[in-house]
# Entry
Amino acid sequence: MMEILRQACLVLRKDLRLEMRRRESLLTMFFFGVLLLFVFHFSFDLTPENVVALAPALLWLAFLFTGTLGLAQLFQAERENRCLDALLLSPLDPGALFLAKVFFNLVLMVLVELVVLPLFWILFNLRSWSPLPSLLAAVFLGTIGFCVLGTLMSAITSRARARELLLPLLLFPLMVPVILATIRCMEAVFRTGGLDDAAAWLRLLFGFDVIFLTLGILIFDWVIEN
Amino acid sequence: MSIGCHLNRRARVTIVQQLADVVAENSFCAPGDRQLRVAVRQLSKAYGVLWALKDIDFEITGGECVALLGPNGAGKSTLLKLLAGLTRPTRGTIELDGSQVGRGGESDKSRIGLLVPGEHLYDDLTARENLRFFTALYKKNNTEPKIDRALAEVGLAARSDEYVAAFSSGMKCRLSIAKWNLLDPELLLLDEPYSVLDREGVDFLEQSLARRCQRGSIVMMASHHVARAIKICSRALVLRQGKLIFDEPRRHPWESFDRLFGEFRPRGE
# Structure
């Protein structure tokens, strides 16, 4: 396990270095996320009465769409110069490659969320900032689920010609449990200011994350080959 | 600076030729030494209904440098990919010292290398960063001086901190040579290495391959530069339409190869 973590750290460090140089994924995700917030801002009038119903869905939609943009680029560096073959040829454990890609995508998503969430608060003039930490916790668990499943789907579609089209078509139906659980958790936060009412949904999110992370590590060899 | 850089071209060519002759005599492993062995049995690969390779059988032992020849579409690259474990055979087995090669196989992946010019390098990393990344991945204890030496040996010392994206195809191929010199696999497969190299680059490559075989490793090189490949190799395998039609060690004179050679020899050779 320590060897898998060592290898995952190596690949993650390489991916972060490439992203710092290219800034393709992060900038695209950031600007798209902000753009979506402005579109929502002009389209919906959020009042204290409808904030519980609308805000979670709008926020999660923004994260889902920006995250999908990042996923489409996830294996871009490996596609160029057939670097994926170089990794498969090496003693790198496929599980380590999966872990590295999940963490890389998670870093990008969290950076975007740290900008988008406060901006959402300001744009929609939400009064109290106190639910923000609980909301971040719920969103973080949902984001892990999104990154885990998204990385698997991104690997499956990475060699397909119409991968940008195929990725959301495969990913979104499978994401339903994560979307549902995260939105219910966020609703509880907007309603009560905490996560006490959403314990069952939190357990579902946590279980989903653990199961798919384990499954991903175990089956990534097969996924990448086929 | 490497020794190779201090020698003039004629001296380097002579050294390569002498080393190649030693390779041809195939006398590197002292009796009783463990000898590396690659065994390919009934190897077949189909893409849909098309058989890229069919019932290939051969064995290679340590110290051999094998030229893999044949016309376009003969199955050379497919065979190299199968030997590298990048794709699964439809039928048959490949063994490296008795261990199954390929995905799900038990052989140590770090023992096999595949050099494809211009591929398997990250464009947005520098030459040095590429070497650092891959050596760390292969758990090679390569210190910076070793990386410096490897880069100097292929004439890239002055460009080590430049991005690979700015490199020409030939320079990328030189960097790949440096990479595999550092990773030092026991079985090195090369796919058309001559296609992008200049004369100096070819000398670097041939010196590296000759040294490798002298140490008891196996080299297999697919190439359309028949005369050049044969010059440094100790044995030739010829594929045609996915079938192995020729497998002989090099000798002087070599009438059987010359009869076949005419058929595949590109214009000008």
User: Anything to note?
Assistant: Residues 9-25 of chain B form the longest helix (17 residues). Residues 178 and 240 of chain B are 32 Å apart (CA to CA). DSSP finds nine helices and ten strands in chain B.
